[in-house]
Amino acid sequence: MKDRRSTYNIQNAVLGVPDEIERLRVQATMSWYKELRTLQWYGLQDGMSVLEVGSGPGYITEQLLHSLPNSHITSLEIDQALQNQAKILLRDVPADRIKFVEASVYSTGLPDHSFDFVVARLIFLHLHDPLEAAQELYRVLKPGGKLVIIDIDDGVFGTVNPDIPSLHTILRKIADAVAQKGGNRFIGRSLPRLLRDSGYIDIDIDSIIQHSDVHGIDGFKRQFDMNRFVDLYNYGVINSDEMEQMKQASEAIQHSSEAYGMMTFIMACGTKP
Ligand SMILES: C[S@@+](CC[C@H](N)C(=O)[O-])C[C@H]1O[C@@H](n2cnc3c(N)ncnc32)[C@H](O)[C@@H]1O
Asked: Does the beta carbon of 54 lie inside 6 Å of ligand 1?
């Protein structure tokens, strides 16, 4: 039994597995050029040996392979079904460019000091023990190697137009419900300390802004798909007034040309001394 200890299991996705995979696809491609820009600013270079953890259906792996044509990418994922999706997506990639590892980020089974760069995108918010994961990634990095965590912080989630008056109350309630299960939707703000406490140095933090006027509305439509909120309402996490506000926002985002959305990703980097 692999050590998942995480709040993310695609089999429980409220959208259902195919729609959740599509949501991940849109989210992965929406602002990749910006994420890449910051990864490069942090030191990612073509030719480096790169480990991606929690790689899911492989859409970020695909971008990494494309953006780093001389790099070898190791794609680590705990969920066999998701990794099989990635294998199908990347079936034409030469075997000497990619290695798939089915394992947990807590115990990768990978050798010490073997990677120049590790990318962990939208996995740490789900982990029950992020410190243990960051330490394991430290172990597999070469001295001088870097870990970049790309994640969210609902305190700086972003905004939508038309406004949702209770957006921050709703986000707080959702985050509290996730926290009860062991996840952390406010992890962005903790990343510098997490990296420091795991032994990394030269820590830095930055943000990526996604705006529907720049990156298209599709990703926002999927974030505000009402089916994602029905369970929260049914379990009493959000009340009927808040549900109504989300419904109106969802309606507007799906159908009104006046609507826009803006979301923030946090990117934190640490170096193994
Ligand atoms: C929200 S998805 C993000 C997928 C991809 N990184 C992206 O940005 O599109 C989180 C991924 O982390 C994986 N995951 C969850 N717990 C894990 C663990 N303990 N070890 C490795 N992967 C894990 C999930 O199966 C899922 O594929």
From this structure: yes
Ligand 1 centroid from CA 248, angstroms: 31
pTM: 0.96
Ligand 1 and 78: CB distance under 6 A: yes
Mean pLDDT of the chain: 95
Q: Whose CA is nearest to atom 23 of ligand 1?
A: 54
Given the CA of residue 56, which atom of ligand 1 is nearest to it? 27
In this model, does residue 76 exceed pLDDT 90?
yes
Ligand 1 mean position, distance from CA 245 (Å):
30
Q: Tell me the pLDDT tens digit for each residue of 219-251.
A: 888 888 888 888 889 989 999 999 999 888 888
Pick the CATH number of 10-157+184-211+264-271 from 3.40.30.10, 3.40.50.10490, 3.40.50.150, 3.40.50.2300: 3.40.50.150
Closest CA to 99 of 79, 122, 127, 71: 71
> In the chain, what are the domain boundaries?
10-157+184-211+264-271
H or E segment to which residue 245 belongs: helix 240-255
Residue 89 has pLDDT above 90, yes or no: yes
Please identify which residue in the block is written with the tokens 């989300």: 246
| Residue 218: pLDDT over 90 | no
267, burial (CB in 10 Å: exposed 0-12, middle 13-18, buried 19+): buried
Q: What is the rounded distance in angstroms from the CA atom of residue 18 to the CA atom of residue 13?
A: 10
Name, in order, each residue with C-beta under 8 angstroms of 264's C-beta and a sequence gap of 6 or more. Answer: 152, 153, 156, 157, 158, 207, 208, 209, 210
Residue 38 pLDDT > 90:
yes
Counting from 1 in the atom list of ligand 1, the atom nearest the Cα of 6 is 16
